[in-house]
Amino acid sequence: MPLLIEILGFIGVALNAIVYQQKKRERLLIFKWISDWVWMFSYGLGGNYSGAAVAGIGIARESTFLVTDRKGIDRRPFLLIFLGCACFSVWLTWGGWFSILPATASFLSVISFWQQKPRVSRLLSLPISACMLTYSIKVGLLAGIANEVFTVSSTVIGIIRHDIRRK
Length: 167
Known about the structure:
Elements: H1 2-19, H2 25-45, H3 49-71, H4 76-92, H5 100-114, H6 118-139, H7 142-164
Helix pairs in contact: 1-2, 1-7, 2-3, 3-4, 3-5, 4-5, 5-6, 6-7
């Protein structure tokens, strides 16, 4: 089982390396949705329920935002719903103070993906990654640690490509 958990995690790493390279919001959300499925199973199989819970919230979040974007539905109520889910996940999966880290990452992710600017999503991914890196170190998930290192690297490249060089 530990090997399967790490394999799933490294598939998540590959997917996350692609997420912040996307120029269009829809593609960013689609790759993040796929990535969150993989991470939910990886964390869940390893008994790391705080990480699995926030990945599950991410799946619902990206699904909702993809639909609301396509249909022109007001997303404001969903901001509050998903922020509440992030806070509730701490209580639901409490395993000590480190349980706050994935919830904080989820809270920032809700804001990141709620607004419609990939540039802001890229910038917010840096504190999100700091939270998840610390959590992955605590639970001993090597793929999670690698993921956050690659996510920060990919994000910095995306910022340079799309935000700095564009100006």
